[in-house]
């Protein structure tokens, strides 16, 4: 049977996936969340004409010719306005952020004023009308759109929302991704490791990748190669309301590769198994009620490359985040062999050269080797059936970010 092309696999995984419903979060906890609907200003900023400088609120007409003497009749500070009116020949001491008093139409900065005796000042230079005054609503006005739906919230956007008077924000729920590792050979880092055992690493890597895309993680731990135990763990994920279940390992064809059967036993409808991709051929995908199930291969590189290509966009879409693979053109610094029928994702390091990006593939591409994946910042994407490529040839690279 022909293997499913990668792009079609992604389409099938994303088919019908919609952003999760919204929830309210306190603004102090909104960092990294996605705005579920557009936000409008609940107030006007600044709410009054405000001074942008420390100095004196004056009438421009009084300082047209300088030096000019003025009577200081009071003070307007941020949080404590002056309630009177500035008349001809008068000034009010004013500080940055304070309301400009009635009658004044400009700000004389204190560097351009000389203090005299008896609460008088001398304006040393003329000031044009409106100088150093922030008009009410300069930043935004009540009811004005501030932030659009789908906006990823960070420092500036959270600051804006707070200034707009929002104590809580409507954000898209974070997808819950359950992660289930399978294999009798696996132990956790730091646990005693028998002679035939290895340390389970995939769950940590996948968890990190999913979290970076906005997911919450439900860690189901390591389940032994026992179909019944795997099925029970799958049902735990569903009952916990996981939006996505990621299984790790046991996806291939060996007699001990029990995950597919265990998923079917749990009631999953299988959409596909095996795709035209290297690494990651035994990838499987299906649905169990509302939960999407991604069965990732056990080899650490296969598992993480598949997660980059399929789990990230799935989690992003559920969480209403924009996701666009960062594909670029580069020049090969070493030759590559002709490709077979699978799309190949070749670990590589990509660096800027004088004429654009230069891609250097790692010579050994075994899908168990995390050292090369950790050293890679990109994958060279080679189409099925691609001819051998010489040094200097153009290639497509997927930056891992
Ligand atoms: N006869 C065939 N054999 C294999 C085929 C095939 O088509 N025919 N496909 C190969 C490919 S490609 C891959 S990829 C692997 C994937 O196999 P599984 O998904 O069944 O993975 P396992 O056999 O369970 O494990 C493979 C390897 O990865 C280690 N592993 C598993 N889980 C973890 C984990 N959580 N952390 C770290 N390492 C893990 C496991 O110990 C094995 O060494 O199948 C090929 N075989
Ligand atoms: O697809 Mo497997 O991932 O070649 O090692």
Structure description:
It is a single chain. The protein folds into four domains: 6-19 and 174-318, Molybdenum Cofactor Biosythetic Enzyme, Chain A (3-Layer(aba) Sandwich); 23-44 and 141-171, Molybdopterin biosynthesis moea protein, domain 2, CATH 3.90.105.10; 50-134, Beta Complex (Molybdopterin biosynthesis moeA protein, domain 3), CATH 2.170.190.11; 327-399, Beta-clip (Beta Barrel), CATH 2.40.340. By secondary structure, the protein is of the alpha/beta class. Helices cover 18% and strands 31% of the residues. The strands form seven sheets. Strands 7-4-6-5-9-8 form a six-stranded mixed sheet, with no helix packed on it. The protein has helices spanning 6-14, 155-163, 202-212, 227-239, 259-265, 300-318, 370-375, and strands at residues 22-26, 39-40, 50-51, 55-58, 68-76, 90-94, 106-109, 113-115, 120-123, 133-134, 145-147, 168-172, 176-182, 186-187, 198-199, 216-223, 244-248, 269-273, 277-278, 284-288, 291-296, 326-332, 343-353, 356-361, 378-382, 394-399. Bound molecules: ligand LQZAQKY5 and molybdate ion. Residues 181, 183, 185-186, 198, 200-203, 248-253, 257, 279, 281-282, 297-300, 302, 367 line the site of ligand LQZAQKY5.
């Amino acid at each position: 049977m022909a293997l499913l092309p990668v792009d079609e696999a992604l389409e099938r995984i994303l088919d019908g996936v919609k952003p999760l419903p919204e929830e309210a979060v306190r603004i102090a906890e909104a960092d990294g969340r996605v705005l579920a609907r557009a936000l409008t200003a609940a107030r006007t900023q600044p709410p009054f004409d405000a001074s942008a400088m420390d100095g004196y609120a004056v009438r421009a007409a009084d300082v047209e010719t300088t030096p000019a003497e003025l009577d200081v009749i009071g003070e307007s500070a941020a949080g404590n306005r002056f309630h009177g009116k500035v008349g001809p020949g008068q000034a009010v001491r004013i500080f940055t952020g304070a309301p400009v008093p009635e009658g004044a139409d400009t700000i004389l900065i204190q560097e351009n004023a000389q203090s005299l005796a008896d609460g008088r000042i001398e304006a040393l230079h003329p000031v044009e009308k409106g100088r150093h005054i922030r008009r009410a609503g300069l930043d935004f006005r009540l009811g004005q759109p501030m932030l659009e739906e789908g906006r990823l919230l960070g420092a500036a956007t959270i600051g804006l929302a707070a200034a707009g008077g929002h104590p809580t924000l409507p954000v898209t729920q974070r997808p819950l991704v359950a992660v289930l590792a399978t294999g009798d050979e696996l132990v956790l880092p730091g646990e005693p490791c028998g002679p035939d055992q290895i340390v389970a690493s995939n769950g940590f890597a996948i968890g990190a990748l999913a979290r970076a895309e906005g997911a919450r993680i439900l860690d189901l731990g390591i389940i032994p190669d026992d179909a019944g135990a795997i099925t029970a763990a799958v049902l735990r994920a569903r009952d916990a309301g996981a939006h996505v279940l990621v299984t790790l390992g046991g996806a291939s064809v060996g007699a001990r590769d029990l995950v597919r059967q265990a998923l079917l036993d749990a009631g999953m409808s299988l959409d596909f198994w095996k795709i035209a991709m290297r690494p990651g051929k035994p990838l499987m995908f299906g649905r169990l009620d509302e939960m999407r199930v991604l069965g990732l291969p056990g080899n650490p590189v296969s598992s993480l490359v598949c997660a980059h290509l399929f789990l990230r966009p799935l989690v992003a879409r559920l969480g209403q985040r924009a996701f666009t693979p960062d594909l670029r053109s580069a020049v090969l610094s070493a030759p590559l062999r002709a490709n077979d029928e699978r799309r190949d994702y070749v670990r590589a390091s990509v660096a800027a050269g004088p004429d654009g990006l230069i891609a250097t593939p790692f010579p050994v591409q075994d899908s168990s080797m995390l050292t090369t994946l950790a050293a890679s910042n990109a994958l060279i994407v080679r189409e099925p059936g691609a001819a051998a490529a010489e040094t200097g040839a153009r290639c497509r690279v997927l930056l891992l970010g």
